[in-house]
Design brief:
One of its GO terms (molecular function) is oxidoreductase activity. The protein is of the alpha/beta class. It has a single domain, classed as NAD(P)-binding Rossmann-like Domain (Rossmann fold), CATH 3.40.50.720. Helices cover 49% and strands 14% of the residues. It has a 7-stranded parallel sheet, with helices on both faces.
Length: 281
């Protein structure tokens, strides 16, 4: 098995939150990391000085940027041993209140970007698995993949899509040495909601008032690092009790949620609006 210092891992969305924590942890363990974000100054400030880390300005939702990102990894390292699909956006509100371009943007980043970047990376990951005994795909999904509730209906749909994609991909590549993992956090203290509503922080100081409530990103980064060292594919809830969200898929519970939540859509709309206003003002 290849030692961490000889493994090349691509991490998307490395300028803040879960991605930043993951890049920092992997660099500390000796991995060679390439990471990307849409904002180059913020990315360089966050992780650019870490040993073994290279930064690329790229938008995972853009096809040309995805291709250029893979080209950069291969030009610099000539191989790819793992990919952490972390970049994502959220939007809080009822579907009827969402602009169409927001729906398209969230799907393009959270689902299409995940599938397409994996497709581009897969030949190189399969080569790594043949030559070194393993390769890894780690998708940062969400507990919302298992229980789709407003005001995160579209976000939840993209994460449910990621969940289905990962299950299918495992059945394509497991026997060929590629582990395929999902890490499914509950709410995390990140900028995802502010970014999704068009107010990305320009610095760490600017981010202080825009963070969503939740667990520390380091807890998620720890589980991502564990996936890259696991014997087999993993599906992980962070914290562990967040796995209870799977109960929402049971028909009796699902039908109850249908009735209860739809009857409270007005209150959900107001609560979401207040949450967004606090993080974007």
């Amino acid at each position: 098995m290849t030692a961490p210092e000889n493994r090349v891992v691509l991490v998307t969305g490395g300028s803040a939150g879960i991605g930043r924590s993951t890049v920092t942890r992997l660099a500390g363990e000796g991995y060679r990391v390439v990471t990307c974000a849409r904002g180059g100054d913020r990315l360089d400030e966050a992780v650019g000085s870490l040993p073994g880390v290279s930064t690329v300005v790229a938008d995972v939702a853009d096809a040309a940027d995805r291709a250029r990102l893979l080209e950069r990894v291969l030009a610099e390292h000539r191989s790819l041993d793992g990919i952490v699909l972390n970049a994502g956006l959220g939007w809080a509100g009822l579907l009827e209140d969402m602009p169409g371009e927001v729906v398209e943007g969230i799907v393009a980043l959270n689902l299409t970007g995940v599938i397409e970047l994996t497709r581009l990376a897969l030949p190189h990951l399969l080569t790594s698995a043949r030559e070194h005994g393993r390769a890894d795909v780690v998708a940062v999904s969400s507990a919302a993949a298992w229980s789709q509730v407003p005001p995160l209906t579209v976000y939840s749909a993209t994460k449910a899509g990621v969940h289905g994609f990962v299950k299918g991909l495992r059945r394509e590549v497991t026997a060929r040495g590629v582990r395929v993992h999902t890490v499914n956090p509950f709410f995390v203290e990140t900028e995802w909601l502010a970014r999704g509503h068009g107010h990305p922080p320009e610095s760490d100081a600017d981010a202080a008032g825009r963070l969503s409530r939740g667990i520390a990103p380091d807890r998620v980064g720890e589980q991502i690092a564990r996936c890259l060292d696991a014997r087999g594919s993993r599906t992980v809830a962070v914290p562990r009790w967040a796995g209870l969200a799977r109960l929402g898929e049971l028909p009796p519970i699902g039908r109850t949620l249908d009735r209860v939540l739809s009857a409270r859509s007005g209150g959900i709309r107001r609560l979401a609006a207040r949450s967004v206003e606090r993080r974007t003002r």
